Amino acid sequence: MELVCLGLNHETAPVEVREQFAVAAEQQGAKARELTELNSIAESVVLSTCNRTEIYIAAEQAEQGAKILHDYLACDHNAVEMEHIYQKVGTDARAHLFRLVSGLNSMVIGETEIFGQVKQAYRQALESGATKGILNKLFQKSFTVGKRIRTNTRIQMGQTSVGSVAVDLAEKIFGKLKGSHVMVIGAGEVSRQVAQSMLSRGASEVTVTNRTHERAVDLAEALGGASVPFDSWEKTLVSADIVVSSTGATDPVLKAAQIEQVRRKRKFRPLFLIDIAVPRDIEPAAGEIEEVYLYDIDKLQQLANEAKNSRAEQLRICEQMIQEEL
Amino acid sequence: MDIFVMDKWTLLIATLLAAAAAIQGASYVRRGVRSPWTMAWLLLSFIAQMVLLGMRGEMRGACPLGDTGEVLIFAAWALTMCYLLEGSVYRLSLLGVFTSPLVAFLLALALIPGMLDSNPVHIDHADAWGEAHAALSVLAYGALGLAAVAGVMFLLLNQRLKDGELNNVLFKNLPPVRELSRVVMRLLVLGFTILTLGLVCGLVMEKSGDVTRHLIVALCQWGAYATLLTLEWRRGMPPRKLALAAVILFILSLSIFPLL
């Protein structure tokens, strides 16, 4: 019996193609069972998530099994869509599944959701009677490998983009961002992205200010927040938890003295300052205030690069562990 | 086995269990993962401490706070109990890893010959106020000690955030600074409340011998915590200062032990 995997994912196919191959979560078991009724396919597991659809089969002969499966898929999809399909056989297919379960093939490397999704797809196939000795053993083994990699490596550690690093830092300062107030100074694109990330993680309030007030109003509307005129934004500093600044100003927009003035009113709550402007918007002395955490663009970029290097090293260790398990 | 020997063995077991929590916890942290066993080790140590305190209570016929060794064991027990309550309710990551060395240290101190009276005097008449004073004061040490532990965790994380050192295992596993700061405050309030009750019991208990120095130190300690909490309540305080004060005050509070 030989192992074959056919599928497509976010790296090989755009969303409009992926959605053509998607199988509803509750239908994965029935689909797997349907495939085992095809000639020469003895076992099958169908996995479908937002980023991928993959079919694992055990067949007498890999080549024949792959062809039958390919033809089966081609019945419902045109040639252009079928071009996005990849095929893995034997050890390659095993290694592919181990990487998948470990989160190494995910859009966010090391994420853990895929582990549960594969488990659910396997359980459905098992319950529908679509799996036997080969795939049962393979999937059980893949879960062991996935757990081993997560326990013994730091693959999911660290963010690799400036925006993600900023959000990670905010969560390390405030915990859950629910109830946090984000102040955006300057209506640039990067500010918008960072503020959007904070909102997506639970920040409940956003205030935007900009020299051109209309742009502040537009961005505030887009983010579902409020805008304040540029000459009176300082009052917002009392209630803000996170300040994202990216103006084109040549002199500091936010000075240490301004923060000193409102410390008592803020009851010394932590204040996270993100300065993504060049030249810098926030006076470096602000970072010396005890409850203030100041990060400029260089620092954020450096942290993102360190995480990238660390992740590359962890990926190498993960691949080594997978090779040992094959 | 004779109960006078068994208590030493139980103390040794409790110490080793706490040390195991500390060593294994630290090794997990170094590997970048959370130890799933720290709470279990400390729970076992806590049970051993309870058995030990039960034995000593039986020997004394009163609350086992008759010598420095017993006070150290009682303090370790209170600290472990606070951790088990705080840790299990708020699931504060790494709190056990930071608490277990302090528990092991207090128990190890009690192991030093002379600390634990081998043949404790059986007390026929126990003053209830005196026992409540001693028990509440040591319980307060548990809460204030844990506040100091959380303070150390805050200071470590705060420094890393200030320096921008994100890519290390400590940074990854420590709880957020705001949460740590709240824990420090919560434990300080709890510890201070129990300390106040203990002090009140101390004022009405039967006095024997010279208690002046002990009373002065106790009042200074209470006054220092009262000042800290009043300052925080009235005008607020940077979280770093609060954490630092929790650590320093707890270390200074330990100076009361030689006066017992």
Structural class estimated from helices and strands of chain A:
alpha/beta
- The count of DSSP E runs of length 2 or more, i.e. the number of strands of chain A, is 10
How far from one another are the termini of chain B? 31 Å
In total, the number of domains of chain A comes to 2
Q: What's the gyration radius of chain B in Å?
A: 19 Å
Keywords:
heterodimer, A: 326 residues, alpha/beta, Beta Polymerase, domain 2, Rossmann fold, 2 domains, 6-stranded parallel beta sheet, 4-stranded antiparallel beta sheet, 12 helices, 10 strands, 47% helix, elongated, B: 260 residues, mainly alpha, 9 helices, flat
Could you please describe the fold and organization of this structure?
The complex is a heterodimer of chains A (326) and B (260). Chain A is α/β, with parallel strands linked by helices. Chain A folds into two domains: 2-152, Glutamyl-tRNA reductase, N-terminal domain (Beta Polymerase, domain 2); 162-303, Rossmann fold (3-Layer(aba) Sandwich). Chain A contains twelve helices and ten strands. Chain A has helices spanning 15-21, 28-36, 62-76, 79-82, 91-101, 113-127, 133-152, 162-174, 189-200, 213-223, 256-262, 297-325, and strands spanning 2-9, 41-48, 52-59, 86-89, 181-185, 205-209, 226-227, 242-245, 271-275, 292-296. Chain A has a six-stranded parallel β-sheet with strand order 7-6-5-8-9-10. In chain A, strands 2-3-1-4 form a four-stranded antiparallel β-sheet, with helices on both faces. The two termini of chain A are 17 Å apart. With 260 residues, chain B is an all-alpha fold. Chain B has two domains: 1-126; 128-260. Chain B contains nine helices and no strands. In chain B, helix 1 (3-31) packs antiparallel against helix 4 (95-111) and helix 5 packs across helix 9. The longest helix of chain B is centred in the middle third of the chain and has 36 residues, at 128-163. The relative contact order of chain B is 0.12. The chains are: A alpha/beta (326), B mainly alpha (260).
